[in-house]
Please model this.
Amino acid sequence: MTTRNTAPGGTRPTLRQQLGARKPIEAFIAEAGSGTDGPKLRRTLGLLHLTMISIGATLGTGIFVVLSSAVPMAGPAVWISFAIAGLAALFAALSYAEMAGAVPVSGSSYTYTYATMGEGLAWICGWCLVLEYGVSVAAIAVGAGEYLNEMANALGFSLPAALTNPPGTDGGVFNIPALAIVLFATVLLVRGTKESAVVNTVLVFMKIAVLVFFIVIAFSAFTSGNFDPLLPMGTAGVSAAAARLFFSYIGFDAASTAGEEAKNPQRDLPRAIILSMVIITVLYILVAVSAIGARQWNWFEGKSAALVQLLEEVTGQSWVALLFAAGAVLAIVSIVITVLYGQTRILVAMSRDGMVPAVFGRINPRNGSPVAGTWITGGAVALVAGLVPLGNLADATSIGTLFAFSLVSIAVIILRRTQPDLPRTFKVPLYPLTPILAVLFCGYLMMNLGVTTWVVFGIWMIVGAAIYMGYGRKKSKLAANWDLHV
Model:
């Protein structure tokens, strides 16, 4: 266990001790509630806002961005791939719900891991979250260019590929739409949490309406024969597509990063996470089934913004495609806002512990948000969005997220054993089976990702380890101010 040493210059732990040193939950809660270190995040978010953050960060990614690449992998069974990915995400979401209710502070899985498994794994988890949040924002924003092109086509003109595609794809030089969307989200977040939450709530309702609109039209052209054969690519194809589509569920944990800005985090965070997962999974499966029912699965191969083209073919009306493309752009904006929000709050938590520079945790007293950290994060993500192709980003994001989700599920088991009397407003059902299944599902999906993805992940981990040894370990507040008792 670890205990606080109030004497400055206390004994520094060895590397082995420091890697395994856990930060007490009480310390996290005390830091979040105390005003002694400067302005704090403000509690302005209710259940609706939290649910909309979770849905906003998740809903749309798989449908608007990566569905076209997943259908050729699984064939008509792509809806099963969505269900598999959704089940894995649901198991993980239940673990997040328990931890969010027990540890109601910013930091999400980074904080949960620090409290249960120590600083070493917490840093690895935080580094994975940088990959999950920061890179997924860029990946999602990249897809905006495709839908802006569809809007332009519906209006009778086209946008230059050099300005709507990243380098190395169809004559692209720089993805200006992706850059613009990330910068817009950054400006909105800088204005304040409540303001961005209100805008996000409006956008979420709009994109749900757009997806329902698509489902109704697609089902009007439904042909059951499009599902025969169901598994043309075999079960391996379904598994590979599920691993790719897990990217579609990245973001529900963004609600757990709002622990210090929720009015009643112990009650509302678990409800928001579970409610959002149910809504998202149902909509994803309905869109996938209706899309395959309207067009044979091989029609999707090689198409960008496939759902827009499908609607135009089914209805023969360009205005329908224009409406849906506009809805897709709004959906992408909503995702970028909420995921970028989550990234900045993770960095706030890490900066408190000395793992990243203090600038990321500096809270503006005027609006109660990390203004400087948001500008730095948003600027970096905007550059990545403008320069890196989508496909390379999606799989790399999935593997980092799956790893982080596994750690949270393990954290549930550890915390149940080490602190069984800790107040919990939600407990995972069928414990310990549920968190164990979450780990197994996440591991299964990780194994179905390609070799290149694993290589990228390995390089990312090596870079992270180097940063920890060169910066995090030396700047760690735990190491500087805590004595370690094993």
User: Anything to note?
Assistant: The domain at 42-475 is CATH 1.20.1740.10 (Amino acid/polyamine transporter I). Residues 1-9 have pLDDT under 50 and may be disordered. DSSP finds 19 helices and two strands in the chain.
